[in-house]
Amino acid sequence: MRRFRNLLRQHGGATAIEFALVAGIFLPLSFAILDAGMLLWTKGALQSVAANTARCAAIASTNCPDVQQFAVTSAGNWVFPGIIAKVDVSPAPAIVCISGASFMKVTITSRYWAGAVLPPPLNGVTLTSVAYFPVAAAPC
User: Fold this and answer.
1) The model scores a pTM over 0.90
2) Residue 72's domain spans which residues?
3) What would the pLDDT profile of 59-113 be if each residue is shown by its tens digit?
4) Is residue 4 assigned to a domain?
5) Strand partners, 108
6) Left if phi > 0, otherwise alpha if psi is -120 to 50, otherwise beta: which for 120?
7) Could you tell me if residue 112 is inside a domain?
8) Tens digit of pLDDT for each residue in 15-68?
9) Domain count of the chain?
Protein backbone atom coordinates (compact mmCIF):
# COMPACT_ATOMS: atom_id res chain seq x y z
CA MET A 1 0.00 0.00 0.00
CA ARG A 2 2.85 2.32 0.81
CA ARG A 3 4.43 1.80 -2.60
CA PHE A 4 1.15 2.68 -4.26
CA ARG A 5 0.98 6.00 -2.37
CA ASN A 6 4.57 6.80 -3.34
CA LEU A 7 3.73 6.05 -6.96
CA LEU A 8 0.80 8.49 -6.90
CA ARG A 9 3.04 11.28 -5.56
CA GLN A 10 5.64 10.88 -8.30
CA HIS A 11 5.16 13.23 -11.28
CA GLY A 12 8.39 12.54 -13.20
CA GLY A 13 6.77 11.14 -16.37
CA ALA A 14 3.82 13.53 -16.51
CA THR A 15 5.54 15.83 -19.00
CA ALA A 16 6.29 12.98 -21.39
CA ILE A 17 2.71 11.73 -21.25
CA GLU A 18 1.31 15.23 -21.82
CA PHE A 19 3.62 15.70 -24.79
CA ALA A 20 2.55 12.37 -26.28
CA LEU A 21 -1.12 13.36 -26.00
CA VAL A 22 -0.65 16.85 -27.44
CA ALA A 23 1.84 15.86 -30.16
CA GLY A 24 -0.63 13.36 -31.61
CA ILE A 25 -2.93 16.26 -32.47
CA PHE A 26 -0.49 19.14 -32.92
CA LEU A 27 1.95 17.57 -35.40
CA PRO A 28 -0.64 16.44 -38.01
CA LEU A 29 -2.37 19.82 -37.70
CA SER A 30 0.95 21.61 -38.23
CA PHE A 31 1.73 19.50 -41.31
CA ALA A 32 -1.75 20.14 -42.74
CA ILE A 33 -1.31 23.91 -42.33
CA LEU A 34 2.13 23.75 -43.94
CA ASP A 35 0.80 21.64 -46.82
CA ALA A 36 -2.13 24.00 -47.44
CA GLY A 37 0.24 26.99 -47.44
CA MET A 38 2.53 25.36 -50.00
CA LEU A 39 -0.50 24.45 -52.14
CA LEU A 40 -1.70 28.07 -52.18
CA TRP A 41 1.81 29.39 -52.89
CA THR A 42 2.26 26.97 -55.80
CA LYS A 43 -1.19 27.80 -57.20
CA GLY A 44 -0.43 31.54 -57.03
CA ALA A 45 2.93 31.12 -58.72
CA LEU A 46 1.45 29.03 -61.54
CA GLN A 47 -1.32 31.61 -62.02
CA SER A 48 1.30 34.35 -62.35
CA VAL A 49 3.25 32.25 -64.86
CA ALA A 50 0.06 31.69 -66.89
CA ALA A 51 -0.70 35.44 -66.87
CA ASN A 52 2.83 36.36 -67.97
CA THR A 53 2.77 33.69 -70.68
CA ALA A 54 -0.59 34.88 -72.03
CA ARG A 55 0.72 38.45 -72.12
CA CYS A 56 3.93 37.43 -73.85
CA ALA A 57 2.01 35.45 -76.49
CA ALA A 58 -0.57 38.21 -77.02
CA ILE A 59 1.96 40.94 -77.70
CA ALA A 60 4.17 38.59 -79.74
CA SER A 61 7.24 39.55 -77.75
CA THR A 62 10.68 38.58 -78.99
CA ASN A 63 11.40 37.31 -75.45
CA CYS A 64 9.20 34.28 -76.06
CA PRO A 65 9.47 32.85 -79.57
CA ASP A 66 8.44 29.47 -78.09
CA VAL A 67 5.55 30.28 -75.74
CA GLN A 68 5.46 26.86 -74.10
CA GLN A 69 9.19 26.99 -73.33
CA PHE A 70 8.72 30.51 -71.94
CA ALA A 71 6.12 29.12 -69.51
CA VAL A 72 8.42 26.25 -68.46
CA THR A 73 11.34 28.62 -67.87
CA SER A 74 9.18 31.11 -65.95
CA ALA A 75 7.72 28.38 -63.75
CA GLY A 76 11.22 27.09 -63.07
CA ASN A 77 12.27 30.55 -61.93
CA TRP A 78 9.18 31.20 -59.80
CA VAL A 79 8.67 27.80 -58.17
CA PHE A 80 11.47 25.36 -58.99
CA PRO A 81 12.87 23.81 -62.17
CA GLY A 82 10.83 20.92 -63.52
CA ILE A 83 7.47 21.83 -61.98
CA ILE A 84 5.88 21.87 -65.43
CA ALA A 85 6.88 20.54 -68.84
CA LYS A 86 6.02 21.85 -72.30
CA VAL A 87 3.13 19.38 -72.54
CA ASP A 88 1.60 20.90 -69.38
CA VAL A 89 1.03 24.18 -71.22
CA SER A 90 -1.89 22.91 -73.20
CA PRO A 91 -3.30 23.54 -75.51
CA ALA A 92 -0.74 25.80 -77.11
CA PRO A 93 -1.82 29.40 -76.52
CA ALA A 94 -4.90 30.10 -78.58
CA ILE A 95 -7.04 33.11 -79.37
CA VAL A 96 -10.58 32.86 -77.97
CA CYS A 97 -13.56 35.17 -78.29
CA ILE A 98 -15.25 36.45 -75.17
CA SER A 99 -18.11 38.94 -75.59
CA GLY A 100 -16.92 39.90 -79.04
CA ALA A 101 -13.33 40.63 -77.99
CA SER A 102 -10.25 38.53 -78.80
CA PHE A 103 -8.15 37.14 -75.96
CA MET A 104 -5.04 34.98 -75.80
CA LYS A 105 -5.76 32.00 -73.54
CA VAL A 106 -3.08 29.97 -71.73
CA THR A 107 -3.83 26.92 -69.57
CA ILE A 108 -1.20 25.35 -67.31
CA THR A 109 -1.71 22.10 -65.40
CA SER A 110 0.65 20.65 -62.84
CA ARG A 111 0.62 17.91 -60.25
CA TYR A 112 0.97 19.34 -56.75
CA TRP A 113 4.61 18.71 -55.88
CA ALA A 114 4.46 18.75 -52.06
CA GLY A 115 1.98 15.89 -51.91
CA ALA A 116 4.88 13.48 -52.33
CA VAL A 117 6.59 15.02 -49.31
CA LEU A 118 3.70 15.48 -46.90
CA PRO A 119 0.82 13.13 -46.06
CA PRO A 120 -2.79 13.38 -47.36
CA PRO A 121 -5.29 15.01 -47.87
CA LEU A 122 -3.63 17.18 -50.51
CA ASN A 123 -1.32 14.74 -52.26
CA GLY A 124 -2.27 13.89 -55.80
CA VAL A 125 -4.01 17.23 -56.44
CA THR A 126 -3.74 18.60 -59.97
CA LEU A 127 -3.46 22.38 -60.14
CA THR A 128 -4.87 24.21 -63.16
CA SER A 129 -4.24 27.87 -63.96
CA VAL A 130 -5.97 29.69 -66.81
CA ALA A 131 -5.11 33.22 -67.93
CA TYR A 132 -6.43 35.52 -70.62
CA PHE A 133 -4.83 38.60 -72.16
CA PRO A 134 -6.51 40.89 -74.72
CA VAL A 135 -5.22 40.72 -78.27
CA ALA A 136 -5.13 43.74 -80.55
CA ALA A 137 -6.99 42.00 -83.31
CA ALA A 138 -10.25 42.52 -85.09
CA PRO A 139 -13.27 41.67 -82.95
CA CYS A 140 -14.54 38.16 -83.51
Assistant:
1) no
2) 13-134
3) 888 888 888 999 999 998 988 888 888 888 876 778 888 888 889 899 999 887 6
4) no
5) 89, 129
6) beta
7) yes
8) 778 888 888 888 888 887 888 888 888 899 999 999 999 999 888 888 888 889
9) 1
Distance, in Å, from the CA atom of 70 to the CA atom of 67, rounded to the nearest integer, reads 5
- In a domain, residue 1? The reply is no
Residue 103 in any domain: the answer is yes
CB atoms within 10 A of CB 37: 11
* Ordered DSSP codes for the chain: -HHHHHHHH--TTHHHHHHHHHHHHHHHHHHHHHHHHHHHHHHHHHHHHHHHHHHHHHTT-TT-SSHHHHHHHHHHHHT-TTSS-GGGB-S--EEEEETTEEEEEEEEEEE-GGGGTS-TTSTTPEEEEEEEEE--S---
